[in-house]
Design a protein that fits this description.
By secondary structure, the chain is of the alpha/beta class. The protein has two domains: 3-122 and 207-217, Rossmann fold, CATH 3.40.50.1360; 133-202, Alpha-Beta Plaits. Helix content is 28%, strand content 27%. The chain is built from six helices and 14 strands. A seven-stranded mixed β-sheet has the order 3-2-1-4-7-13-14. A four-stranded antiparallel β-sheet has the order 9-10-8-11, with helices on one face. Strands 5-6-12 form a three-stranded antiparallel β-sheet, covered by helices on one side. Strand 5 (86-87) and strand 6 (93-94) form a beta hairpin. Helix 1 (3-14) packs across helix 2. The longest helix is centred in the N-terminal third of the chain and has 15 residues, at 29-43. It is globular and about 55 Å long.
Length: 225
């Protein structure tokens, strides 16, 4: 991913920010580039408050001296900005390779507008084309969930932690399976089947959630909506 593309995306996203807004801050490289540019604007006088979706995005925001708030302290989020692992022509998304899918969904759901920042390589004809579907699960159920997820077609692998030391742990103290099923003909049906398995907390299928997708390509940023 070209750093210049990330800066262009961040600058395009910032045109949607106004003084006094409450913003959702996503996770991942595109979101972190936005947070850094937002911090620069804040140092020049922009007054905003932010709800981070992960400990990682919170740390970046603190380094930029942005004001952080919790969901308990606010009654609305004006705009949430986040990245995605895949985007279809219908603006369906796969998210969660960074491990923050549950909190990202909560913040996106609470936002009046959900803006997604991606580079052109994330555009796909169907979800599952280039990325697995992350599935957040409670650890207690993990021994059986792998079998149940694989039974939906494809393979389900428990995501390893750093340096392979145990399973990956989310900020919610849950684990993640990465389900590979290839291009998904009916993501709504697959999402429903996954959620019906006891022990599943959330999936990385973000369907009918994005309001705007900003795409960096060929030195410019175009808007999908």
């Amino acid at each position: 991913m070209d750093p210049d593309d990330l800066d262009r995306l961040a600058d395009a996203a910032l045109t949607r920010v106004a003084d006094g807004m409450t913003l959702g801050l996503g996770s991942g490289r595109a979101a972190e580039a936005f947070i850094r540019r937002l911090g620069l604007r804040a140092r020049r006088g922009l007054a905003v408050q932010c709800v981070p979706t992960s400990t990682g995005s919170a740390e970046v925001a603190r380094r930029e001296n942005l004001r952080l708030v919790t969901l308990a302290e606010i009654d609305r989020i004006d705009v949430a900005f986040d990245g995605a692992d895949e985007v279809t022509p219908g603006l369906h998304l796969t998210k969660g390779l960074g491990g923050a899918l549950l909190r990202e969904r909560v913040v996106a759901h609470e936002a009046e507008v959900f803006v997604v920042l991606v580079t052109a390589d994330k555009l796909v004809p169907a979800l599952g084309t280039r990325a697995p579907v992350p599935v957040e699960v409670v650890p207690f159920a993990a021994p059986v969930l792998g079998r149940h997820l694989a039974a939906l077609g494809g393979t389900a692998a428990l995501r390893p932690g750093e340096a392979g030391l145990g399973p990956y742990m989310t900020d919610n103290q849950n684990w993640i399976f990465d389900l590979r099923v290839g291009p998904i003909a009916d993501p709504f049906a697959l999402d429903a089947k996954i959620r019906a398995i006891p022990g599943v907390v959330d999936t990385g299928l973000f369907l009918e959630m994005a309001d705007v997708v900003l795409v960096a390509e060929a030195g410019t940023v175009r808007t999908l909506s």
